[in-house]
């Protein structure tokens, strides 16, 4: 893998390559928006794109046909609209058919109910753009005053997503259905749980039992997921979940992977009860020969690592061993979202275990596992990994990783740079600092106050051989430029006493007296007091370069600022320099 | 030897202030000697069909690129066909910020892929200014 190249979605050109995390996100998003613009054109002018001259035909490059073909009222037309996922039109068509008296078959009604529960009375994404925004109505989950079925098309509140309301289309259609079978009940329950009406789902489930129908696996999964919203106390939640499981066993429905994952998700919200139960759940899964997926492990880990003051168990290493042994394909919709690999790394950091982190890294490299992390999370993952490395490893290893990862795999955050500086400090390799400063300039962090202070204090703490001092002084000059008012609207950064002092020290050590004097003048402007060390350094620099005038100016400055050391400085000046009478 | 009345693809010598790129400076009898081809496909080999279609596609693609990247194309667009893949290599100037260039790249790639029913890839190189070979 080439360590200097960016991700393959970017063009390989120094002007077009992203330099930091913000840029890489911006470029990838702008490329995506270009693709969306092209898709919009293709959708609106399909007549230019639908000639099939490729042999064999490539269906994914043809424009999609989204308009319903069959006009008029009939059941086939309704089926087609359902197939094309046009919610509003299918509901209208259904109403028209019912009013005209044509019987609509049970299957079609069921598929209409499926569509409505899936979309929860909101529209599918493409139709949302075409409709104008209507007034926001309040969700009334327990509104008993709403009796008449509303014909108007309502929208849920925008902030919490589409919610299930009383007497919306799905319920209305459900009520007027002449016959219902198990499938209808199941879809209704799943829709209600998906859109947040958990108590209604429970009522519907009791209706289902009264009618002596059998629910299927997906319904039970939905009900188990809804348990935390139905009961408050942990024990009650667990009891309810167990009740659902016994019903499942009675109705001879086989649990599958999603059942167990839903169970574990519920147990996450059950606190202490969850911790004792989840291992038993895992044993059940193994007994039934269902392979756990990544979401399972994630729920497990979060149950155990929820509280900070709990003693860390060895479970994370066991889980990692399991994960290493097999390749994972996404099976659960929660897989990618919940298996926060960066969170796992976070736990590794808390445990300060570098070996676990390496193991995690190796598992990521196998097979398809990188697909679980998208580009944003990837940066977070690598930055945590790098912080862990800086804390725990030797400096050579850290520098090696830094060189390999830095422009290609991830973009260091300011915190990463601070960690790197501390590691360098601990290993006493401060001569690498100028090259890191170059990287910082490239990344665009030159205006971060903490970073600048850290750089300056590290550079000015000890004496160094001369070439390094020159390099340090150059960095100091760059930092000074950042503090001055730039031509654009950016406000110049405020000088603090320590940064000013450090800059003076660095300039003095490199022998740049004039620059050092300009910095000293800044002291008065910025209302700060230089420390004694700064004054001494400046004096020795002036002595080296043989400018007694500067020394006198310094003494005058010290006197004007009323420093206690001005007397000492005066005597030192008189000793070390050969002054003419006037100057005395 | 060529007749002095040939005028194809030649930039006539002027006062010495007209900047001319390498591609423009060399007349067509230098192709395969000092120049390469601008469009590479197998249509002109013995026994292969489709040369005319490729020529039409080429001209469309050149106009499309000239229009989508307004004022940015520094030199001619080079088209390479490898199997089913169409690689469009263009040399751009740096007048636009990179995010806008990426927007145009994404747009051009998807639109051309859907239009020609084959994967199209855009490979760009940016150059600070037009690369002048000599002044004629």
Automatic annotation (TrEMBL), chain A:
GO cellular component terms listed in the entry, alphabetical order: mitochondrion; ribonucleoprotein complex; ribosome
GO biological process: mitochondrial translation; regulation of translation
Region of interest called Disordered, as start-end residue ranges on this chain: 124-168
MF terms in GO: ribosomal small subunit binding; rRNA binding
Coiled coil regions, renumbered to chain: none
Subcellular location: Mitochondrion
Transmembrane segments: none
Alphabetical UniProt keywords: Mitochondrion, Repeat, Ribonucleoprotein, Ribosomal protein, RNA-binding, rRNA-binding, Transit peptide, Translation regulation
Entry keyword annotation includes Cell membrane: no
Family: Belongs to the mitochondrion-specific ribosomal protein mS39 family.
The protein's name: Small ribosomal subunit protein mS39
Gene symbol of the encoding locus: Ptcd3
UniProtKB/TrEMBL annotation, chain B:
InterPro entries: Ribosomal_uS3m
A matching Pfam family: MRP-S24
GO biological process, one term: translation
Cellular compartments annotated: Mitochondrion
Cellular component terms per the entry's GO annotation: mitochondrion; ribonucleoprotein complex; ribosome
Keywords: Mitochondrion, Ribonucleoprotein, Ribosomal protein, Transit peptide
Family membership: Belongs to the universal ribosomal protein uS3 family.
Protein name (database record): RT24 protein
Protein's gene: Mrps24
């Amino acid at each position: 893998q080439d360590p200097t190249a960016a991700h393959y979605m970017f063009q390989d050109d120094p002007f077009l390559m992203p330099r930091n995390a913000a840029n890489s996100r911006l470029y990838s998003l702008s490329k995506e928006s270009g693709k969306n613009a092209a898709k919009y054109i293709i959708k609106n002018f399909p007549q230019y794109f639908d000639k099939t001259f490729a042999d064999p035909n490539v269906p994914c490059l043809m424009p999609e046909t989204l308009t319903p073909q069959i006009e008029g009222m009939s059941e086939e037309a309704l089926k087609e609209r359902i197939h094309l996922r046009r919610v509003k039109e299918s509901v209208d068509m259904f109403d028209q058919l019912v009013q005209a008296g044509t019987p609509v078959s049970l299957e079609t009604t069921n598929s209409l109910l499926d569509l409505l529960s899936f979309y929860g009375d909101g529209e599918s994404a493409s139709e949302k753009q075409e409709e104008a925004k209507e007034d926001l109505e309040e969700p009334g989950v327990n509104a008993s005053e709403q009796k008449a079925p509303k014909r108007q098309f309502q929208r849920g509140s925008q902030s919490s997503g589409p919610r299930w309301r009383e007497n919306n289309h799905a319920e209305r259609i459900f009520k007027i259905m002449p016959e219902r079978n198990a499938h209808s009940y199941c879809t209704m329950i799943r829709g209600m749980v998906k859109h947040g009406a958990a108590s209604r789902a429970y009522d519907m489930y009791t209706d289902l039992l009264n009618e002596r129908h059998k629910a299927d696996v997906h319904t039970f999964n939905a009900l188990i997921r809804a348990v935390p919203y139905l009961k408050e106390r942990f024990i009650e939640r667990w009891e309810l979940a167990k009740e659902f499981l016994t019903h499942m066993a009675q109705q001879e429905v086989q649990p599958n992977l999603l059942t167990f994952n839903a169970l574990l998700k519920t147990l996450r919200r059950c606190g202490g009860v969850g911790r004792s139960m989840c291992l038993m759940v895992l044993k059940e899964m193994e007994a039934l020969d269902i392979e756990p997926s990544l979401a399972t492990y994630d729920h497990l880990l979060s149950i155990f690592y929820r509280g900070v003051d709990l003693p860390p168990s060895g479970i994370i290493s066991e889980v990692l061993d399991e994960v290493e042994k097999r390749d994972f394909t996404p099976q659960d919709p929660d897989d990618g979202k919940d298996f926060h690999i960066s969170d796992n790394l976070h736990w590794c950091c808390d445990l300060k275990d570098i070996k676990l982190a390496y193991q995690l890294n190796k598992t990521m490299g196998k097979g398809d596992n990188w697909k679980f992390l998208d580009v944003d999370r990837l940066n977070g993952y690598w930055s945590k990994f790098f912080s862990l490395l800086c804390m725990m490893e030797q400096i050579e290893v850290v520098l090696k990783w830094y060189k390999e990862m830095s422009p290609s795999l991830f973009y260091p955050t300011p915190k990463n740079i601070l960690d790197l500086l501390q590691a360098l400090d601990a290993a006493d390799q401060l001569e690498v600092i100028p090259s890191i400063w170059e990287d910082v300039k490239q990344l665009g962090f030159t205006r971060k106050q903490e970073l600048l202070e850290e750089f300056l204090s590290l550079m000015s703490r000890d004496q160094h051989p001369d070439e390094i001092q020159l390099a340090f002084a150059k960095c100091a000059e760059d930092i000074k430029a950042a503090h001055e008012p730039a031509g654009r609207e950016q406000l110049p950064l405020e000088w603090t006493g320590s940064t000013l002092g450090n800059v003076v020290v660095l300039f003095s050590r490199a022998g740049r007296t004039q620059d050092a004097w300009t910095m000293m003048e800044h002291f008065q402007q910025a209302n700060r007091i230089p420390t004694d060390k700064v004054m001494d350094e400046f004096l020795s620099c002036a002595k080296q370069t043989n400018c007694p005038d500067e020394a006198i100016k310094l003494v005058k400055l010290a006197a004007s600022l009323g420093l206690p050391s001005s007397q000492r400085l005066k005597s030192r000046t008189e000793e070390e320099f050969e002054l003419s009478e006037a100057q005395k | 030897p060529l007749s002095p009345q040939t005028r194809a693809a030649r930039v006539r010598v002027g006062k010495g202030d007209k900047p001319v790129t390498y591609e423009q400076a060399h007349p067509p009898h230098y192709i395969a000697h000092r120049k390469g081809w601008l469009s590479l496909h197998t249509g002109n080999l013995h026994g292969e069909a489709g040369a005319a279609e490729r020529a039409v596609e080429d001209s469309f693609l050149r106009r499309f690129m000239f229009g989508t990247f307004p004022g940015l194309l520094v030199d001619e667009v080079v088209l390479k066909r490898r199997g089913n893949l169409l690689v469009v290599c263009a040399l751009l100037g740096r007048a636009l910020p990179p995010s806008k260039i990426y927007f145009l790249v994404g747009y051009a790639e998807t639109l051309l892929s859907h239009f020609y029913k084959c994967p199209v890839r855009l490979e760009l190189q940016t150059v600070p200014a037009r690369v002048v070979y000599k002044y004629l």
